[in-house]
Amino acid sequence: MHRGVDEALGQFMGLIREPDRDRRSSRKVYVILGRGEYRQGRPLDSLQSAYRIGARIAWRRIAAASLEAGLDGKTLSLLAESIFVYIDELSADSTEGYAEAQFKQQGARLRRERELVTLMLREPSPNPEELQAAARMAAWQIPKSLAAVACHERDLAEVTRVLPIGVISATVDGYGCIAIPDPGGPGRHRQISAQFTGRPSAMGSRVAPGRLGESWQLARVAFDAATSGTLPADRLIRAEDHLVDLALFRSRDLIARLREQTLAPVEDLTPKAQARMAETALAYVENSGNAAEMARSLNIHPQTARYRIARLRELFGDDLDRPDRRLALELSLRSGHNPDRSVSG
C-alpha cells in the first residue's frame, strides 16, 4: 500500500512535467492491488474509496500550496481536473486486476468441477477416497444423491448460470452434462425444470454420486429421443417417466423390421384406411379386444368398433389371438411414425 501511494505521487508529478508520458509500465502496481483485494475476499469498493479519499486530501494540500504561490483560478481548475482524472485511471487499473483474478479463480473452479463430473461418470466408478479428494479440490459438498441432466452443449453455460448453488456441469462427448444434487428434494424438479423451458433436455434417474454414469446414460438416451421427435423437445423430461418409449427408441432399428413384418397385412390399403386400422389395432390390444372399451377410447359407436374388429380379423387373422403376435403388433404401433411408411401409431 505504501508503494502504491509513493508510485501514485511519483507518477502524477512526472505527468505534470511531461503530460504525454507513457504510464503503461507503472500500471502494474495498481493492477496488483486490485488482484490482492479479490484474493483477500474483499469487494473493490474499499480500495476505490481509498483512492478517492487520497485524491481529496491531496487536492486540499495542493490547492493550499497553490494559493500561497499565487496561481490563478484557471490553473487551479486544470490541476484539480488532472488529479481526479488520474485517480480514475488508477481505479480502472485496479478494476482490471480484480477482474483478472476473479476470472482466473472462476476458471480454475470450473475446471475442477468439470474434472469432478468426468470422474463421477467414469467406468468403473471411482472409489470413495478419490471422489472425496476431487470434491474437496472443487469445494463441492458431496450430496446423498444425484441425477444427470443432458442438454445441448450450446445451452450449457446459459442454463448453469441460473441453476441453484451446488449444481456442477461439464461438456461430455458433445453434450451438456449437468449434475443435479438431491433431485428428489421438495420442489426441486419444478425449480430445475423452469430453467429448461423451451429447450430440449432430459433428466436421468436418481443415483448415488458414485453411480452418476448410470443416470447420465439414461438422460442421454432420453435427450436423443427428444431431439429426434420421439419425446417432447420443449421442456425438461424425466427419463423414468418414459421407459417404454425409450426402450422402443433404443431398439428402433429392430422395431422397424418388426413393424414391416407385423403391419404387412395393411400394406395394400389406402393411407387413410391404414391409419384407421392402425388406430383400431392399438385400441384392440390395449383393451384386450373389448368392443365397448375400444369404442370409448376411440370415441366411436360400439357397433362401429365391432365392425372394425371384424375388419381387423379379416386382415390379421389368428395373430390377434396369439399373445406373442399381439405384443409384436403393439410394439410396432407404439414405436412412432415411420416416414417411409403410411402407417402411424
User: Which descriptor suits the 3D outline?
Assistant: elongated
Series of secondary-structure elements, N-terminal to C-terminal: HHHHHEHEEHEHEHHHHHH
CA radius of gyration is: 35 Å
Strand runs, count? 5
Class of the largest domain, according to the CATH hierarchy?
Alpha Beta
Q: What is the count of structural domains?
A: 3
Which topology of the largest domain does CATH recognise?
Alpha-Beta Plaits
Secondary structure category: alpha+beta
Q: Please bin the fraction of helical residues.
A: 55-70%
- For the termini, the CA-CA separation is 75 Å
* Average pLDDT number: 86
**CATH architecture name of the largest domain:** 2-Layer Sandwich
The main β sheet shows up as: 5 strands, mixed
How many DSSP H or I helices? 14
List the strand order in the largest sheet. 2-3-1-4-5
Uncertain regions spanning at least 5 consecutive residues: 337-345
